[in-house]
Amino acid sequence: MIYVVGIGPGERKMMTGEALEAIQNADVIVGYITYIRLIEELIRDKEVVKTGMRKEIDRCQEAVNIAKTGKTVAVISSGDAGIYGMAGLILEILDKEKEPIGVEIVAGVTASIGAAVRLGAPLMHDFCHISLSDLLTPWEVIEKRVKLAAEADFVVCFYNPRSKGRADHLKHALEIMMTYKSPETPIGIVKDVGRKEERKILTTMDEINYEDVNMTTMVIVGNKETYISGDRMITPRGYTL
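Structure for Precorrin-3B C(17)-methyltransferase, as requested:
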């Protein structure tokens, strides 16, 4: 049996009861070393398999191999396992190998939702998720998605917005969006949501400081109706008040 578990953004209190139960029921915990560190107190009596960055295939294959021995395995993803997590990869491997191993996908609080509640109510109308990482998706495809999302006036949640190797990706994405959005469009930035280092910033497209953004940051760009009131970012649903 394999549980693919979304552990949320960081804090135990942001984990679902189902996620806690799956971890408790597992014989072996498999995950990225940073995410394993977030749940150390929950898995002290467990066998743990951890790997570094860009070892997702190895990690999931090892989880499948362990499950073949009859052990119950929990594969850990931050946020939700089905949103840029390990759920799809586990299912792809099992489908390719035609293994009759039971799988249960356990939902978690994804970073956009965790960040949104810190910001106020920025996702009250239609929104989309776009990852700015071009490790698995060509940058030309990402650019097109950013353009179409901006043209359609979605609120946009940017995952993987900026890293040392991709320092200008967010800047390029916002430049594309500026064709369709006002420079005063609100932007909410939440760093390390659900962790001790959490920090919230409210800004606009023309005032954003890119140095405030890294790989553990969620960036939410509002639509034409989004506004900032005090320390809150609000996207109206359309009710008449």
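Residues 112-234 form a domain with the Methyltransferase, Cobalt-precorrin-4 Transmethylase; Domain 2 fold (CATH 3.30.950.10).
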